[in-house]
Design brief:
Elements (H helix, E strand, L loop, with lengths): L4 E5 L10 H13 L5 E5 L8 H5 L3 E7 L9 E5 L1 H9 L10 H10 L6 E7 L12 H21 L7
Parallel strand pairs: 1-2, 1-3, 3-5
Antiparallel strand pairs: 4-5
Helix pairs in contact: 1-5
Length: about 160
């Protein structure tokens, strides 16, 4: 199977819940192990250099802290066009150098925005100095990983094989 899946964790692990994407990405990497068809990438606080790995993947899964207007630890996934709409509607101020929306725009301009894509957002409780997740967000990690596994499994099936 020639499909390459990029699992991109985004965040800053020095800002409490802002690091949830990185923590979840590492947990998934431990679950899946080293595979030729998957790349696990710590996207940190984002930069334009991420446009390259995005352009080289067939499917993209992004995990990040997101302002969902929900209780801390709430997990929501946005797949395909729903991801694009969520990014477009949520231009939140961020510690990130480049927003995901900007990366999406660059990728679209170059014709490399993956057709199969999803974002898993986790509502943070605290974004401030601290190297561990709050209990509410830490408790959401199993749900984040289960959602990610389902999405990765869905990526493995072409849309026309139902």
């Amino acid at each position: 199977m020639g499909m390459k899946i990029l699992v991109l964790g985004i965040g800053n692990t020095l800002l409490t819940d802002e690091g949830v994407g990185i923590v979840a990405m590492h947990e998934l990497e431990a679950q899946y192990g080293v595979r030729d068809d998957m790349e696990f990438l710590d996207g940190g606080t984002l930069s334009f250099t991420l446009a390259v790995p995005i352009s080289e993947c067939d499917a993209l899964l992004v995990i990040d802290a997101a302002e969902l207007g929900a209780a801390p630890g709430t997990v929501r996934s946005f797949e395909g066009e729903a991801m694009d709409r969520f990014l477009g509607a949520n231009r939140k101020s961020s510690v990130h150098e480049v927003g995901l929306l900007d990366l999406m725009s660059i990728s679209r301009l170059t014709g490399h925005w993956p057709q199969r894509r999803a974002l898993i957002g986790v509502q943070p409780a605290v974004v401030g100095w601290g190297e561990t997740l709050t209990p509410e967000v830490a408790a959401a990690l199993p749900e984040v990983c289960a959602t990610a596994c389902r999405i990765i499994d869905d990526f493995g099936h072409s849309p026309d094989t139902e």
